Amino acid sequence: MNKANVLIVEDNKINALVLTKTIQSLCSCKHVVNDKQAFAAVEENDFDLIFMDINLGSNSLDGEGIMKVIKSDPKNSHIKIMAVTSYAMPGDKQRFLDAGFDAYFSKPINKQAIIEGVKEIFGSSQVPA
To answer: pTM to 2 decimals?
Structure first.
């Protein structure tokens, strides 16, 4: 069985490590920290899923902007993009889903919710338990 190919766009090393450790048994993971690296990674690889932080610092587009650029290219239409963000006020989840994200997870990362989200995207039969 092939593992899903996942890109993690996250500028915080600890958050990226937690996310990677959470899903590495389910997915092959690549980590980048900004828009330029995300665009290059998507151009060079065939990802199934992207976990996208929203606030990536002042030297990068935010995660929503990156998601919109990636989704604007028809060759990327199969990629599912999940927002993983500290924006967790009432209404934030719906705002990100309305913006075009396929799923939303608030920080701090809930490991079980992330695992269930991956299984939901790919179907539990396609990923190990």
So the answer is: 0.91
Q: How high is the pLDDT of residue 129?
A: 44
pLDDT higher than threshold 90 for residue 128: no
Q: Are 7 and 51 in contact (CB under 8 A)?
A: yes
Cβ partners under 8 Å of residue 43, min gap 6? none
Distance CA 50, CA 24 (A): 14
Both tokens assigned to 125: 């039969």
Residues 67-77 pLDDT 10s: 999 999 999 99
Burial string for 78-100 (b: 16+ CB within 10 Å, else e) reads ebbbbbbbebeeeebbeebeeee
